[in-house]
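Ligand: zinc ion. Inputs:
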Amino acid sequence: MAGRAADSTVLAGARVVLPTGTVEDGRVAVESTRISDSAPEDARVIDLPGHWVVPGFVDMHNHGGGGASFTSGTVDEVLHGIRTHREHGTTTLVASTVTGEMDFLARRAGILSELVEQGDLAGIHFEGPFISPCRKGAHSEDLLRDPDPAEVRKLLDAARGTARMFTLATELPGGIDSVRLLAEHGVIAAIGHTDATYEQTVEAIDAGATVATHLFNAMPPLAHREPGPIAALLEDDRITVELINDGTHLHPAILELAYHHKGAGRVALITDAMDAAGFGDGLYDLGPLAVSVTDGVARLVEGGSIAGSTLTLDTAFRRAVTIDRIPVEDVVRSISANPARLLGVDDRVGSLEPGKDADLVVLDEDFVLAGVMRKGEWIIEPKTA
Ligand SMILES: [Zn+2]
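Predicted complex:
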């Protein structure tokens, strides 16, 4: 692992995935912190035959990693969690909180907002407390509340402009007004942990919701006489669907169905990771709830609900290509470009284009992570022959 800035570096001889397609024997030039059109004669050349170079991953739904929680950890612990995910290719990351007391979440927003302002995080995602007790997943039932626009505004204010997304059960009282308020502020209203009907979901989309929080998980299943939220979220082009591709949350056939139905431009691969991601099995806290992680699967100690994942995005990428048979270019869109666009940071990250941050991932021919660069600096430097 190295932290050396690459003043002028050229990655050569790799398959480079650009917005326009894959270039065999391609080159990526890096000048200081950015991707550039060309490199000077004396630039350091790194040959990467048989490798892929893809944009750095963008995770818009992530609760922690490396043993650290974004909801409860100290600033140093949060930074360690961020670092852990960077080592797995996630160069842009939104910190997600889980349900807590309103005052606690407001204080937490203050702490996380500083990490956004200094460039370590791309924003805050509030998952709860405005979610359905019927689909609470790993959230404390006694702390759940109806989505009150005044309380949404309180969290927006506490986050000082760094809130990027709220997950809401939009069918609850105040849900539609909260969606409108978020849309007015340019913050993503995500439908999730919801018990909505098909019709209620359509109403929320019409009000301005644009994301489905981990589609299929924590919502009623698709049924032929009760299509529920899934049919509405799949069919509407205004919605991008989050998918957790860890092999536990979704069957590969369901992942393929979502890609097929939405098109690669409307899928965002996320981790929904909790503390154990990049760390290991054991006992953890998810907010106020105890979670046991066994063989990489996180479940509530009480009741056994799946409690987030231990996924990292390099694994999500590899699974999508090698198990789910999604074309590499489509995976790149859904793991980098789409979330970057939703978060409003696609002018800087999300694709390999001159002028953008030099955030990139090097994968070997088996799609195993071999290198990570963020803003021109190697987080993990690829070993070259
Ligand atoms: Zn989550």
